[in-house]
TrEMBL record:
Belongs to the zinc-containing alcohol dehydrogenase family. Its cofactor is Zn(2+). It is an enzyme of class 1 (oxidoreductase). The keyword Chloroplast does not apply. InterPro entries: ADH-like_C, ADH-like_N, ADH_Zn_CS, ER, GroES-like_sf, NAD(P)-bd_dom_sf. One of its GO terms (biological process) is formaldehyde catabolic process. Keywords: Metal-binding, NAD, Oxidoreductase, Zinc. The keyword Membrane does not apply. Gene3D superfamilies: Medium-chain alcohol dehydrogenases, catalytic domain, NAD(P)-binding Rossmann-like Domain. It comes from Acinetobacter baylyi (strain ATCC 33305 / BD413 / ADP1). This is Putative aryl-alcohol dehydrogenase (Benzyl alcohol dehydrogenase) (XylB-like). Pfam families: ADH_N, ADH_zinc_N. CDD domains: benzyl_alcohol_DH. GO terms for molecular function: aryl-alcohol dehydrogenase (NAD+) activity; S-(hydroxymethyl)glutathione dehydrogenase [NAD(P)+] activity; zinc ion binding.
């Protein structure tokens, strides 16, 4: 079928709105009419070739919408259901069997290749293949094909157009604190970076009832929002040594640190702020593939520090996403405060606004969804 999509044609260049041809759903696939899709840093990382998906490509991996068609083997959803989409996983490997699909051994092949695992293309333009199937969806478009494994059915009375970011950025931040680090009640945490992931981590820390929640973030507006969301302290990294600031608040250091910027020097400051047996969770995408870390082995071994690379907040979609939605309905996960809506055709403006801090989380609304 003919669909409208935002196409990435060249690294570091604007997306263009174009018509492309979307394949019919195969056995376990679901055709979703997109009502809203989050704009995530990972989409730009893919456009700019840090994730080597071939261009031209339709990216987008925080989609939500309405099921329009299902493959003949699909049992999880029916036509007309409201769904949110997330990452794809195989369901068969040891990690998937442990309910840890973000660590699926097939993760790169199922999410970053630009085609189905069998090599067939989901998107074409004038008989030329266009990379699709990004995170098993490619939802910067009016419609997307997903698998039943990477969609979750949601209640129809929820604001479907803003739910998409739960499928990546928000579950990464909240799940990072609630599941990967599993911060116990009364523990202390420093969160580095106050974008959507860092602010979702703040909300997750509030849900976990952490006793001290510190956010390190350069933008004043984001520090203010963090306090509103329940952070106890905010630190502007421009105001001197971050680690000293944290140790002024907690002389013993923090039990947990959560790093969402991906910058080496910030990761090192996070490590230095840990207390004894402290655990550092890393979710930030580094600026380049060559980014390395200077770790002082003596302090690591002396204090028993631990470092945990986190993917998608350890979320197993079918239980964790409904849990986050329940918290949202109860007023305990007010992620809607982070969101600003744009038309899909305004994607380049949204990218600029997000980069300059004019909005925290952009959600793109395809034209057909403007009610």
């Amino acid at each position: 079928m003919k669909i409208t999509a935002a196409v990435a044609r060249q690294a570091h260049q604007d997306f263009s709105i174009e018509q492309v041809e979307l394949d019919e759903p195969k056995d376990h696939e679901v055709l979703v009419r997109i009502e809203g899709v989050g704009l995530c840093h990972t989409d730009l990382v893919a456009r700019d070739r840090l994730i080597p998906i071939p261009l031209p490509a339709v990216l987008g991996h925080e989609g939500a919408g309405v099921v329009e068609k299902i493959g003949k083997a699909v049992t999880k959803v029916a036509v007309g259901d409201h769904v949110l989409m997330s990452f794809n996983s195989c369901g068969e490997c040891p990690r998937c069997k442990e309910h840890l699909p973000p660590y699926c051994t097939q993760f790169p092949q199922l999410n970053y290749v630009g085609a189905r695992p069998d090599g067939s293309s989901t998107l074409k333009q004038n008989d030329q293949a266009v990379s699709g199937y990004f995170f098993g969806q490619s939802s910067f478009a009016s419609h997307a094909l997903a698998n039943e494994r990477n969609i979750v059915k949601v209640a129809q009375d929820l604001p479907i157009e803003i739910l998409g970011p739960l499928g990546c950025g928000l579950q990464t931040g909240a799940g990072g604190v609630m599941r990967s680090l599993a911060c116990p009640q009364g523990s202390t945490i420093a969160i580095f970076g106050g974008g959507p992931v860092g602010l979702a981590a703040v909300m997750g820390a509030v849900i976990q009832q952490c006793a001290t929640i510190i956010l390190v973030e350069p933008m004043a507006s984001r520090r203010e929002l963090a306090l509103e969301l329940g952070a106890h302290h905010v630190i502007d990294p421009a105001q001197g040594n971050i680690t000293e600031h944290i140790r002024n608040i907690l002389p013993q250091g923090v039990d947990f640190a959560f790093e969402s910027s991906g910058r080496g020097e910030v990761v090192e400051a996070a490590l230095a702020s840990l207390g004894s047996h402290g655990l550092l969770g890393l979710v930030g995408v580094p600026p380049s593939v060559e980014t390395t870390l200077n770790v002082n082995l003596v302090s690591l071994i002396t204090f028993g520090h631990r470092i945990h690379g986190i993917i998608e907040g350890d979320s197993d979609l079918d239980t964790f996403l409904p849990e986050l939605i329940q918290h949202y309905q109860a007023g305990k996960f007010p992620f809607d405060k982070l969101i600003k809506k744009y038309a899909l055709s305004e994607i380049n403006q949204a990218i600029q606004d997000q980069a300059q801090g004019r909005c925290i989380k952009a959600v793109l609304i395809p034209e057909h969804a403007h009610h």
